[in-house]
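Re: the request from the purification team.
They wanted to know what the chain is likely to look like in 3D before they choose a buffer screen. I agreed to run a prediction and write the result into the notebook, where they can find it.
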Amino acid sequence: MDELWQRYRTFWTPVLIGVGVFLVGIIAVHIITKDPEAQKRGLIADQSSLRGMKRPERGVAEQLRKLTGDLDAQATSWATRLDTSRSAGEQLLEQGVDRALRAAILRGASDAEARDTARLAARFDDDEVAAARAARKFATLKPQSIEQLRSGDPNVAFGGLKSEVWTALRVRANRADMEIADALGFDAIASVNRATLPGCVLSLALVADLADLAIRGGVSAFDMIKVGPNITPGQPTDFVTEWPVTIAMEGPYGAIARLVDRVTDPQHAEALLGATLKQPGGRTGRTPDGVVRFEATLAAAVVRPAVDLGLDRSEQ
């Protein structure tokens, strides 16, 4: 046998190598390629699915484009309502300062009310002297605070704005015999930098607005405000940026109901992320004085309607 192998080795060696390569190739092709029967069944299923589809009627694509435009317009409309800025064109810091000081010092008076002495005095129990003093203070503090926030140290500038708002609201809350959370909950924020400054200012404006509504509405306690401690800067590519604030209030059902009606008013809607209404202290049933506890998470929100949501691509 060995003699035969030695004699015919030059012949059998390439033959055996060729057979080995052929078998390896067959195995590789079998592994890589899909089962022809499975491909055939898939093709039959795709053909059946295509036959079951209906060709869109004429005008459907145009109608889809119109609906996309309507959705974009609706998103822009809701953006102007949800955005705490309330108006386009102003800077976020200006908007936040205006809202916070207006709530704390002018007791939520609009520009039109502030220009009308009698209407502004109505918010100060018809005290025209106090109303005029508040209007002057607002007119002085607003530009000063905006300038400090723009050009000064953000931590120091925000601390000054927070102090002015907290002082005004604390005095009003004491006079109304309403308990209010210390420093409006902003002691949880250890430091403010330039990137987080807009979120802090808009969150302060939201809390100030809620505190003003609570004081004027007859709420007995605004005793829990949780802000931060991590205020993150929003991204310009985000359609909406939210800075959540969790609050809790106690008071007569009517006072709480009026406040809830205000924050859910479509014309002045806040970003309400969740809310509960219950008896204080975990009690059940109806209390003799009708006192309820309102807990909610709201958010200072900035909406960027110009950001592409990809609605036009979804129809494809």
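For the purification team: The longest strand covers residues 240-252.
Please add any questions underneath this entry.
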